[in-house]
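STRUCTURE REQUEST FORM
Protein name: Probable phosphoketolase
Source organism: Luteibacter rhizovicinus DSM 16549
Requested output: structure tokens
Priority: standard
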Amino acid sequence: MTEPLAPDLLRRMHAYWRAANYLTVGQIYLRDNPMLDEPLTREHIKHRLLGHWGTTTGLNFIYTHLNRAIVERDLNMIYVIGPGHGGPGLVAHTYLEGSYTEIYPHIDRSVAGMRELFRQFSWPYGIPSHVAPETPGSIHEGGELGYSLSHAFGAAFDNPDLIVSCVVGDGEAETGALATSWHSNKFLNPVRDGAVLPILHLNGFKIANPTVLARIEPEELRDLMRGYGYEPHFVEGHEPEPMHQAFAAALDTCLDEIRRIQTEAREGTASEAKRPRWPMIVLRSPKGWTGPKVVDGKPVEGTWRAHQVPIDKFDNDEHLKILEDWMKSYDAHELFDERGRFRDEFATLAPRGQRRMGMNPHANGGLLLKQLHMPHFRPFAQDVKTPGDHKAEATRVLGKFLSGVMQQNMETFRVFGPDETASNRLEAIYEVSGKTWLGEYEGVDENLSPEGRVMEVLSEHQCQGWLEGYLLTGRHGFFSCYEAFIHIIDSMFNQHAKWLKVTRKMSWRPPIASLNYLLSSHVWHQDHNGFSHQDPGFIDHVANKKSEIVRVYLPPDANCLLSVADHCLRSRHYVNVIIAGKQPDWQWLDMESAVRHCTAGAGIWSWAGRGEDDPDVVMASAGDAPTVEVLAAIMLLREYVPDIRIRMVNVVDLMSLETPDEHPHGMDDDVFDDLFTKDKPVIFAFHGYPGIIHKLTYRRHNHDNIHVRGYKEEGTTTTALDMMVLNNMDRFQLALDVINRVPRLADQREAATQRYWSDIQRHKLYVSEHGQDLPDVRDWQWKAEEVDE
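Status: completed
Returned output:
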């Protein structure tokens, strides 16, 4: 084995690693006496010992070596750390390289600054223990495992000069999301994309158990990684000097191979690219490396006991001495001068300026955010001359608009989805760009291309992770998914929303492009898929997040969908959820009316009501399918009760129902009362679970009069109207609700109830016999009320 590190370089790199380890231990344990200038006492130790030691020293080792490669090769590199609990190590490194002090000047490179660095870690109003947004250079917190590699590849797409070093923890490697993300290499085009260097860090244990990949035979592990399409390079041991040399050699080999792959590929074009076998590193090192060997007679280093805080109690002098000896083993006074400043002899090993991983602008995507060039959406509009004069597939209309967006942003915009782009009627995008594919081709394949910009893989986790990585590094994207299965990424959405919330208050992290979801194939049109494909609950999940981050839109037709999509794509630092059906459905508003309606968020549809200035009832809807049922119910009511006065309200922006102090889009009470009145019954047909409407409106004057119909976990393989019937949101039920709640119609309730059951019986018998809805339902079309001259 060659030894790429000269003796003096090896000595200084080892010192650099020791400095990072010392700062890591100090953050976990100390609140004072940072340089151990006086004997360590209990008063110097934090009362609450929090953090994770076990993974961190390996991360420090890797970061030190990446610094050497960046300097020698002038690399443009960022890091993604899967074992997010290694936060103190990454904080330590950004402090050593100067990034931390540049962003947080009060944590200067002095004894006092080091004291603040230590004290703030896992301290009230300080910083968390993860590689969090507060950590310079981080785009991945790692608090929840499984997404590091997908984030890394998302960052590398369309970043041809970028190398993303991604550390995958062996505990993380057991998650389904991570296991799938190894396949991301099948989508990386070496001509136009950057590179990802996976580093599988095997330290043998999770919290209390061994890890799977650390216990299988080396040959089996090699075969596994080669089966995924990588060429693994193994480094293992525990003695520092040979480990430094071995890792440096493996790193150089991998970087040489990445350069070779890209150089050869870039002699051709992106359309000619073939999938290479990318290199990776498998690093096996002891858990808690360089830490205490034994505590209370039990082994610690190299065991699961090193996972968090190896010494968690200081109720005897022996524990205090173990900690003091441990920290002194790093020879801090050799590493830092008397003022607490990292000695230049070692500090000069770090990259300079934006080559430092803590200051690389790709890890702070708002700094690099490219303008999204947007076509005008009005030319894609449906020509609606009168409400309900024709049907159209709203998402197919949207697909044509998105193809225009793609065409104008061929290096900064991608569409992501789990094999559902065409299913959700967005296939017009393929006219501009195919689906990314670097594998084998067969004659039946369609729309596949090595330079495609539509990212399809049958894993919602990967689509979400790729998109997050793409957005966090300054680009734009759109995620289309079946409504019921977006729940697969509930927790990933959680983490991204939390990231956006925290970074919103960080002046040094400018806003990034919003994460935009289109949820289609929704709950109300599952004619063949049935109950398994019915779940609108993502709305509730999103609505629980901080109001400055989340938006939920339910456009009732194609023109409203175009207006909403244009707004969402232009927005910054939000999560936008759009729910729209893909089936042919009635179109209600011309484009100018749609824009006004969507801008307001909710409004009265005067053309659908009668006597709206003093209504008997307000009929409201949110969602395309509920809107049809409300309008059909209004037509029935005009027949049943000729003198009834109805106000029709449609809600596009769900969060507008909240008060302004709860959400920026919220209506003030006067506007809400102008729509829903203060004292009239409100029959509200909602796309999702009814409870969320009550949650959003519980503080309103008229809340007690709001009666919501929505999804209540009833459904099967059935017709569109029968889905409504099963969940009591059909036109017959809504009409009965009105009669039952308008006081002056009390004498009609018994007859109305009998009529309702007769209609439901007629419906049930017909769909059971014919397998489709009644003719008067299939052929229903909105008719404006004839007004006597």
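Reviewer notes: The domain at 604-778 is CATH 3.40.50.920 (Rossmann fold). The longest strand covers residues 162-169.
Form closed.
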